[in-house]
């Protein structure tokens, strides 16, 4: 391990000299980043083809690709994707709704904070997944308990993020609003919302990430549809290619929804200095 | 309240003045203010017990607090609680040590050595998109339902938050300090131990705290799906026999273990980040 | 938790109580100046020249102030002398030896004090460690008037105190050249005057060569033996200041005349 690199970061004026070639180098480095995963995939593919490895427990990329294509072509994949998306959509909406309302309430009112926050903080200590058996007992094994679990997972980051953002609003910019004699509504629209928004969107993103984790857990509890069902089905029937295919679809969907959230919220963040985000 | 009473004389002069000033308020009001945060949880508990005792709440839905306490005593007496907590804790800690160690090492390596970052970081960022719980079926195919499966899952789960925060922490160390260290002749090793690592420490600890949450969460799911021991197994088993009191006990056990882990990291933060204005405690170093 | 403390090495989390030391008389840290010579020095970043064929000889022990507008090449000049950057052409020599890389006998004070927040004050002063560092750091701290602050965390110090600690950190290694990169720029006026007096006293006691980068003409005239004005990478004025010391910060007619001459060249 060498420290030479850390030292060169401190080269002060040095980067300025090399600026013209920087973007080219950056693109080149991005390409270099694919060397390891693509190389590993190729080696594994070759090893299985040459008969050095069996590839039963970890199927080679070509077989995984064929499985995804097959599932997509036969139309088998889409109902599962739709079921999973519906669950996470519903759970996310509920969790975000509850988290936003309660977070804004406890952030704005000291009394509400004194009353509600200790309870919610105590509940937060329980990993949301631990509720699963109780949710099943209360709500049955079907959709309601799954959506509730996802909503519970989404709720806490959104609640904490909203509460934290409201509390952290800079007193000085509120004073600016007071100096200009803003109405209550205008104060919220012009001062509070813009101040809260960047943190709020970060909270939404971590909520979404947890939502994806919990949709997996929820579907493990037993589902006849959904990507989690594909996973369990693959395990019970000993089809690792189907498992890996489902894992990949999970990863792609997770990344896609996060990108979607970023794209949708991007227009609201124009003009912010997002270096800290 | 006894806490407050013990605390007051130990404080320094200015604080005592304010306490004295506040003492002018009626003692009942102070008592009420201290009690307010506990009002709702306590009220819920009392209502819960009342509803269960009066038969409004079926024990199938939610057992009375007294029933949970009884189940606790029972499980403590026959040793099953202790055994299961120990089994779960052992899995959690081994997984944390392995996954945390790997994540930390990768974070350091990629943080201080550009070629490693170029080669590895984008791979790790891609893998991060996979919800690690989704690999449970694959892991079961690989390892069966042995200990390795659970430990592997926990390790995978904790490795990413620790990696990301270690890497980020090292990259955001103040470059001015690194330059100063060069001018003042620090060797590469001294630069690492005295500037880079302590500078990254707050971020690493944030990663650790996050990883601890992931650790319990992973373990619960893994133990629910495939285990013959551990708290997750205990609760899932109890659910099948409709022993709701044991289910609630399991939930509480997870909560306490999670809280304990969280408090431990907070304590570590307070110890190691005493230099940080945001973490300063007590009067140490505040003579100015 | 004690494990963590060991894991992260010595001094990171705290520094144990320093042993009692009997302090030697002032200026006990040996010093003395070194000459600085720049011959035909050029420096360019890409296409943009910052220094053009610069020749400058600084005798040992001189207090030189370099004045100029932002972007005039002051900081670049200083980085070349410190060995942080290499010249595009020409030669920089300290004590007769060509500068290649960082210099052991050259120390630098930055605009911001750059104290390590997780080291106590004494640990900051002795940041390079080495044999007997506690003893030398204690002496240096006393030299800058902060003898009793060794166990504080940096965040409790005021801006002026932080720069004093930074000065002590430079003194520990008994440098023969001290480079000051606008270290007083961010301080309030009264603290700045205190720092001027302190810097002048320490320079007189130790006798090292000082290069002070500043855009404050009054500061340059109050402190320096000689003022050089850098304009667009070239020396626009080279002026000896032979006012008697100790000097007054304001209200001196001769100083005002010199300031006016320098301002005209900037």
UniProtKB/TrEMBL annotation, chain A:
According to its record, how does it sit in the membrane? Multi-pass membrane protein
A single Gene Ontology CC term: plasma membrane
Checking Gene3D superfamilies in the record gives: MetI-like
State its location(s): Cell membrane
Name the principal localization, coarsely classed. Answer: membrane
The family assignment reads: Belongs to the binding-protein-dependent transport system permease family.
What protein does this entry describe? ABC transporter permease
Give the species: Azorhizobium oxalatiphilum
Q: What taxonomic lineage is listed for the species of origin? A: Bacteria, Pseudomonadati, Pseudomonadota, Alphaproteobacteria, Hyphomicrobiales
Automatic annotation (TrEMBL), chain B:
Q: Which SUPFAM superfamilies match?
A: MetI-like
Gene Ontology cellular-component terms for this entry are: plasma membrane
Keywords, sorted A to Z: Cell membrane, Membrane, Transmembrane, Transmembrane helix, Transport
Q: Which residues cross the membrane?
A: 28-47, 54-73, 93-113, 125-145, 151-171, 183-208, 214-234, 241-257
Q: Which residues form a coiled coil?
A: none
Taking every annotated instance into account, which residue ranges of this chain make up the domain ABC transmembrane type-1? 81-265
Membrane topology for this entry? Multi-pass membrane protein
Q: Mention any Pfam family matching this sequence.
A: BPD_transp_1
Q: Does the keyword Ubl conjugation apply?
A: no
The main location is: membrane
A GO BP entry:
alkanesulfonate transmembrane transport
Superkingdom of origin: Bacteria
**Cross-referenced InterPro entries:** MetI-like, MetI-like_sf
Q: Which Gene3D superfamilies match?
A: MetI-like
**According to its UniProt record, where is this protein located?**
Cell membrane
The free-text function statement in the UniProt record for this protein reads: Probably part of an ABC transporter complex. Probably responsible for the translocation of the substrate across the membrane.
Family, according to the entry, reads as follows:
Belongs to the binding-protein-dependent transport system permease family.
Which PANTHER family does the entry mention? ALIPHATIC SULFONATES TRANSPORT PERMEASE PROTEIN SSUC-RELATED, ALKANE SULFONATE ABC TRANSPORTER-RELATED, MEMBRANE SUBUNIT
> What is the designated name of this protein?
ABC transporter permease
Organism name? Azorhizobium oxalatiphilum
UniProtKB/TrEMBL annotation, chain C:
GO terms assigned for molecular function: ATP binding; ATP hydrolysis activity
Keywords linked to the UniProt accession: ATP-binding, Cell membrane, Membrane, Nucleotide-binding, Translocase, Transport
Keyword Transport among UniProt keywords: yes
The ABC transporter domain, residue ranges? 36-257
Instruction: Return the similarity comment.
Output: Belongs to the ABC transporter superfamily.
Question: What is the protein name given in its UniProt record?
Answer: Aliphatic sulfonates import ATP-binding protein SsuB 1
Q: Which organism is it from?
A: Azorhizobium oxalatiphilum
């Amino acid at each position: 391990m060498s420290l030479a690199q850390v030292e060169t970061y401190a080269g002060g004026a040095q980067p300025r000299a090399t600026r013209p070639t920087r973007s080219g180098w950056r693109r080149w480095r991005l390409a270099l980043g694919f060397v390891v995963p693509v190389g590993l995939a190729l080696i594994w593919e070759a090893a299985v083809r040459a008969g050095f490895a069996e590839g039963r427990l970890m199927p080679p990329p070509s077989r995984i690709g064929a499985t995804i294509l097959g599932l997509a072509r036969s139309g088998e994949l889409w109902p599962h994707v739709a079921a999973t998306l519906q669950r996470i959509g519903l759970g996310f909406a509920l969790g975000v709704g509850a988290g936003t309302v309660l977070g804004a309430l406890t952030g704005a009112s000291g009394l509400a904070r004194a009353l509600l926050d200790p309870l919610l903080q105590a509940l937060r200590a329980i990993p949301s997944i631990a509720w699963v058996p109780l949710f099943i007992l209360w709500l049955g094994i079907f959709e309601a308990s799954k959506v509730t679990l996802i909503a519970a997972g989404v709720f806490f980051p959104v609640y904490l993020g909203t509460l934290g953002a409201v509390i952290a609003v800079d007193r000085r910019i509120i004073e600016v609003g007071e100096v200009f004699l803003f109405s209550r509504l205008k104060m919220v629209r012009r001062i509070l919302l813009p101040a809260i928004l960047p943190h709020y969107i970060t909270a939404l993103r971590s909520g979404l990430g947890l939502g994806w984790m919990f949709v997996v857990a929820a579907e493990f509890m037993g589902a006849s549809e959904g990507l989690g069902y594909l996973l369990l089905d693959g395990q019970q029937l000993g089809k690792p290619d189907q498992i890996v295919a489902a894992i990949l679809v999970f990863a792609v969907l997770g990344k896609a929804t996060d990108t979607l959230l970023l794209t949708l919220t991007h227009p609201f963040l124009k003009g912010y200095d997002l270096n800290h985000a | 309240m006894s806490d407050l009473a013990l605390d007051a004389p130990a404080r320094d002069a200015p604080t005592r003045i304010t306490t004295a000033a506040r003492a002018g308020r009626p003692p009942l009001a102070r008592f009420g203010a201290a009690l307010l945060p506990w009002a709702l949880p306590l009220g819920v508990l009392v209502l819960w017990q009342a509803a269960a005792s009066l038969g409004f709440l079926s024990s199938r839905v939610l057992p009375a607090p007294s029933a949970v306490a009884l189940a606790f005593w029972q499980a403590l007496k026959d040793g099953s609680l202790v055994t299961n907590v120990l089994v779960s804790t052992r899995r959690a800690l081994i997984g944390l040590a392995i996954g945390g160690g790997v994540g930390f090492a990768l974070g350091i390596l990629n943080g201080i050595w550009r070629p490693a970052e170029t080669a590895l970081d984008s791979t790790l960022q891609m893998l991060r998109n996979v919800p690690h719980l989704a690999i449970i079926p694959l892991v079961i195919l690989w390892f069966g339902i042995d200990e390795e499966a659970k430990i592997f899952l926990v390790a995978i789960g904790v490795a990413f938050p620790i990696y990301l925060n270690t890497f980020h922490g090292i990259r955001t160390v103040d470059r001015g300090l690194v330059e100063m260290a060069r001018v003042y002749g620090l060797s590469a090793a001294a630069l690492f131990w005295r500037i880079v690592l302590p500078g990254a420490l707050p971020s690493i600890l944030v990663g650790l705290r996050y990883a601890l949450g992931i650790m319990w969460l992973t373990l619960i799911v893994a133990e629910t799906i495939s285990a013959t021991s551990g708290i997750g197994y205990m609760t899932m088993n109890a659910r099948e026999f409709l022993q709701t009191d044991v289910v609630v006990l399991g939930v509480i056990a997870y909560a306490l273990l999670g809280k304990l882990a969280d408090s431990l990291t907070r304590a570590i933060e307070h110890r190691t980040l005493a230099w940080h204005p945001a973490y300063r405690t007590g009067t140490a170093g505040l003579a100015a | 938790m004690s494990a963590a403390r060991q894991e992260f090495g010595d001094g990171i989390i705290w520094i144990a109580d320093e042993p009692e030391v009997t302090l030697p008389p002032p200026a006990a840290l040996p010093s003395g100046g070194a000459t600085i010579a720049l011959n035909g020095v050029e420096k360019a970043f890409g296409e943009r020249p910052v220094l053009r064929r610069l020749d400058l000889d600084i005798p040992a022990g001189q207090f030189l102030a370099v004045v100029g507008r932002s972007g005039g090449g002051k900081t670049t000049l200083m980085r070349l002398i410190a060995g942080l950057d290499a010249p595009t052409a020409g030669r920089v020599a300290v004590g007769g030896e060509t500068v290649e890389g960082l210099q052991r006998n050259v120390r630098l004070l930055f605009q911001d004090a750059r104290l390590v927040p997780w080291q106590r004050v004494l640990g900051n002063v002795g940041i390079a460690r080495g044999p007997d560092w506690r003893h030398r750091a204690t002496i240096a701290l006393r030299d800058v008037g902060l003898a009793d602050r060794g166990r504080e965390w940096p965040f409790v110090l005021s801006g002026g105190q932080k720069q004093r600690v930074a000065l002590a950190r430079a003194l520990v290694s008994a440098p023969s050249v001290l480079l000051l990169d606008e270290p007083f720029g961010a301080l309030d006026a009264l603290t700045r005057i205190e720092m001027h007096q302190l810097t002048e006293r320490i320079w007189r006691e130790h006798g090292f060569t000082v290069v002070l980068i500043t855009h404050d003409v009054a500061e340059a005239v109050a402190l320096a033996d000689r003022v050089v004005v850098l304009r667009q990478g070239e020396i626009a004025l080279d002026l000896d200041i032979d006012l008697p010391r100790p000097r007054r910060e304001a209200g001196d007619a001769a100083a005002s005349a010199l300031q006016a001459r320098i301002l005209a060249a900037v």
